[in-house]
Amino acid sequence: MNRQTFAGALLAAALAFAPAAFGATIRVAIGTQDTTINCAAGGLMIRELHLLEKYLPHDGRYKDAQYDIEWHNFTSGAPLTNEMVADKLDFGAMADFPGSLNGAAFLKAGRRSIFLSVLSGSTIGSGNGIVVPVGSPVQSIADLKGKQISVPFASTAHGMLLRALKAQGWDLDRDVTVLTQAPEVAGPALQVGKIDAHADFVPFADLFPYKGFARKIYDGAQADAPTFHGTLVAADYAKKYPEIVVAYLRAAIEADRLLAAEPERYSELIAKVTGVDAEVAYLFHGPLGLQTRDMTWKPEYRQALATAIDTLRLLKRHDSNLTADSFIDDSYVRTAFQAASLDYDAQLKNYAKSPLKAKDPVDGKPIADEKRAASVWFAGEPLVRHYGSAEHAFAEARKAEAAGKRVRVIYVHDRDLGIALLANQAWFAADSQGRLNAFLLKDAAARWAQANHAQMLDYAAARGLASSHLASAR
């Protein structure tokens, strides 16, 4: 190599690794899934609150840098992946299954993507679910044999559905018909009874029941199979701009902190931007929420990604040699945690949900039993009220309604699964003292009632019993 060629190579290297020193404009193009509300800390919140701008570097080689921040919203992971592979996006947020296809698509194109961090998930699988039309006689997945079930193909909900059907011992070619259907198509189909059931990811398995035209008859927690949504980046971009990747993750860390501190406020923001009701957003992001916001790569999430990669390979959706170990790189999120003065390894060991620290306003006692806890969001009140039991929540709701207040939503928790539920979708079992235990499934409530000499109740009966017991106690 002659001197002129060598000098040119040095200049090219300088331009590649220190573009900001030359006053470059650096693109930061981020693909979000706003309606997939457990991605909020990696997209919607950062965008709406301008958090990324707070952390983008402006020193060292970025001293004179200008940033061109682009936001692009998608309803699913597949088109987001197409844009990333086409080099139109640098970052993306999606679940384990579509994320696996992202990694495979990059490899097929001769490039590579990195799974940076988790955003929100469940180590037991809650969040994904199966719903049926509200008037359907179906009460559990066992009742769906011979029926037609739709699901967004190659989604995390598809993986849940396959596991659930396998657990029934069914032949997928004979015992059930599975067809592909996006949530925006499935919603109207459920309303007019064109499909027997629909499996979907966050938030649709809870949004459709909240809207009143579906009932949830299966939650992913029943499969005990971890699931998550997280963030990805093109590997060549991360290599070129590692400080920007860390800045993005620091913005996500702050968004997560804000959601934890004021879930009602930011559930309202999510609703304003997406149209997904704040009551449903709070079901996920409030204390003891349906899923847990968690940016660390717990072993369960690593296994979820490995399962997704293997399942999609068996379904012939990809034939790459992608592995979870080659796909995940936790060095960036560890650096972001350190920069935010947070202990990544401590959080890695922390499996607790967003905590509920409150006293029951009825008896003044601290709320200790998470599975009996209940909450009420009253119209006109900025904060959700928390109670130590469903009977207290129901009785207080009835009293407030009699005084002219409107109840937006009541939340309870499944005694068996420990997951948050919309109370009007739950079944209950009441013991001889009128203490209520909530369940997602009618059969589960019936079993507990029989084993504990209790009375099984639907929502309306449970509310009536709670009000009468509290009145007599006073």
What does this 3D model show about the protein?
There is one protein chain. The chain is an alpha+beta fold and 474 residues long. It folds into 3 domains: 3-121 and 227-348, Periplasmic binding protein-like II (D-Maltodextrin-Binding Protein, domain 2, 3-Layer(aba) Sandwich); 129-223, D-Maltodextrin-Binding Protein, domain 2 (3-Layer(aba) Sandwich), CATH 3.40.190; 374-473, no CATH class. The protein has 19 helices and 18 strands. It has helices spanning 3-17, 44-48, 52-55, 77-85, 96-108, 156-167, 183-191, 204-211, 235-240, 242-261, 263-274, 278-285, 299-314, 324-327, 331-339, 344-348, 390-402, 442-451, 459-473, and strands at 25-32, 66-73, 91-95, 113-122, 129-133, 148-151, 177-180, 197-200, 214-219, 227-234, 292-293, 374-378, 385-387, 407-413, 420-422, 427-430, 436-439, 455-457. It has a 6-stranded mixed sheet, with helices on both faces. A 5-stranded mixed sheet has the order 7-6-8-5-9. It has a 4-stranded antiparallel sheet with strand order 13-12-14-15, with helices on both faces. A hairpin with a 5-residue loop joins strand 16 and strand 17 (436-439).
Describe this structure in a few short sentences:
With 474 residues, this protein is of the alpha+beta class. It has 19 helices and 18 strands.
Keywords summarizing the entry:
474 residues, alpha+beta, D-Maltodextrin-Binding Protein, domain 2, 3 domains, six-stranded mixed beta sheet, five-stranded mixed beta sheet, 19 helices, 20% strand, globular
